[in-house]
Amino acid sequence: MRRFVRLFLLFSLTAALCCAAEKEGGDSHLILWKWANFLVLAAGLGYLAAKTLPPVFASRSQAILKDMTESEKIRKDAEARAADVDRRLAGLEAEIAALRVDSQKESQAETERLKAHTAAEIAKIQAQSTREIESYAKAARTDLKRYAAGLAVDLAEQKIRGRMTPTTQDGLVRGFVRELK
Question: pTM for the full model?
Answer without folding.
Answer: 0.36
